[in-house]
């Protein structure tokens, strides 16, 4: 047996692609005493979380709730419920997560029509429109709003309008966008959306907020085959998360303490105000951008397509061992930034400014640490 | 918007079917600062958790790790990876969770051959043997070791031997048994097993420890179809949880803080010693049983088949509104006990003595509260 003593994590500053820094209030909420998942007090909390998530997503969708598992499971919840064998889904890929969407479509027995854009660029509405025209059999359009692997922001409003013009439902990955940049589920007519707790909501990882509109629910209700996942089957989950005035039916045991934390993070978002949170992310992004420029670092993503909360910068030629550089940031400064993923591995660093971590203090720490190590 | 103020849960004593009481040490671990899921410190924690889970499961299985989602997802991990379309699975049902196994088999395109026993009784080895003989095409036997819905303990050792005699793999639900009663994954030759964090491990709900042996892994590697779930695909998860000396490949973001808590609960189990924990559950069960007898309460399950950690008692005729009775326990005594599930709804109460909650203090509270309310 290895050492089996209590674990004391180091105190890091988390400026990677997530998890992001978790405020003390949220950590304290996490450690409140566990109660039963069918306790009336917990049921009240579930209702509050649903209402707060509606605010965060800017939606009146009745079916808005947190999936009891990480963002990947939120993605899968959307696909396994909405995609039936025989469906054609137009999947936009401009980074790592579009590829995961393709995997999901195919494992549901659907056909994925790929619309490819360069890693680091927004999804091209012109290409999407061409694909919609070329594939009238398509009934779903899926894309990533904020690509965590590159830092590119796509024009979700335009993409959703195109989908609607071609009678397609939309599945939108808002893992990194929720709480960080404008996202209007109802105004833009998004049919299904998923996010994660560990990005701009500043919560520990493990929970995936989702929301489904009426057209999405109608497609789920009209399924002729069972959803392949029992755990993620919305027909069952709906009975658990919606009391409809009656008794909730037991589906699975909700991660009670994780819900305390999610609730507290949503309360903090409500206190700040969604628009103020978006504006803070933008302001902090500009401060970081100016500081990075002074250090001679350049962005992967063109300015108009940049996510404020995820800054991908090109690794300078002077850095010969980028992994060692990130290790030094971690060891000497307790600062975590992200490596590049996939085709961008070894080429970019990803610097997160998410939620609570989008702060002057974090920017100062990051710029100082980069300055120190780049001078070596 | 509803009230969006911080949530302060009531302080309950949890003696239902789970979640069970969480010790302060585990809650404190949960609230440690979040670090990155690829941080070297977190990777070290992952290795410690795997080693401690091997101890808890009594296995040397390399593929022993916690699924980042509740027990239902642990169950689904076993079925979606091991069952391919065309497989025949003998599923034992003696309570609610055997029915869920059937759902899983069918959603994987398999055929479930059901072996039915009364709710409240152990699985009958004779019936299982007959089914194995009648269905030589079956390649998997699935059963629940400790039925949380009834409090019955089945003879996992004998059932596994029967499966081996008929060249079947075994999938065993150990959600409520792990840490509470003897469970020997290697000695009994269990091929795939799943559990939950919120029962005898005394952790908050949300995580499902699993373990897979070599024969199970061989079947997964020999699949001709992709696992229908991307999130639960062990081919991908293995690369994340097994470093093999190289870099871990990113699969999903692990629920970092939940892993802190799981680790601490496993450290506590190791400190006490597995055999001591099993003995404590048995001792406390006998104390509770004697007290319940004094109150005139009788058990659903015959003595030799009883789970120490889950005590299902018949609701006495004098209690005309059992839901109101449980509400009074909750309101007047802050005590949660469980209702009956499925066919046992309204007929039994389920009193848990799980993990940290298997204590003299909890038994005294429970017996006193029942005595007070039954006298009314």
TrEMBL record, chains A, B:
Entry-linked Pfam families: Aminotran_5
CC cofactor: pyridoxal 5'-phosphate
Keyword tRNA-binding belongs to the record: no
SUPFAM superfamilies hit by this protein: PLP-dependent transferases
Transmembrane segments: none
GO BP terms: glycine biosynthetic process, by transamination of glyoxylate
Domain of life: Bacteria
Residue numbers of N6-(pyridoxal phosphate)lysine PTMs: 199
InterPro entries reported in the protein's UniProt record: Aminotrans_V_dom, Aminotrans_V_PyrdxlP_BS, PyrdxlP-dep_Trfase, PyrdxlP-dep_Trfase_major, PyrdxlP-dep_Trfase_small, SP_NH2Trfase/AEP_transaminase
Keywords: Aminotransferase, Pyridoxal phosphate, Transferase
All copies of domain Aminotransferase class V, residue ranges: 34-317
The keyword Transferase is assigned to this record: yes
Gene3D superfamilies: Aspartate Aminotransferase, domain 1 (3.90.1150.10), Type I PLP-dependent aspartate aminotransferase-like (Major domain) (3.40.640.10)
Binding site for substrate: 350
GO MF, one example: L-serine-pyruvate transaminase activity
Coiled-coil spans in chain: none
Location of region: Disordered: 1-20
UniProt record similarity statement: Belongs to the class-V pyridoxal-phosphate-dependent aminotransferase family.
This protein's name: Alanine--glyoxylate aminotransferase
Organism this protein belongs to: Paremcibacter congregatus
Organism placement in taxonomy: Bacteria, Pseudomonadati, Pseudomonadota, Alphaproteobacteria, Emcibacterales
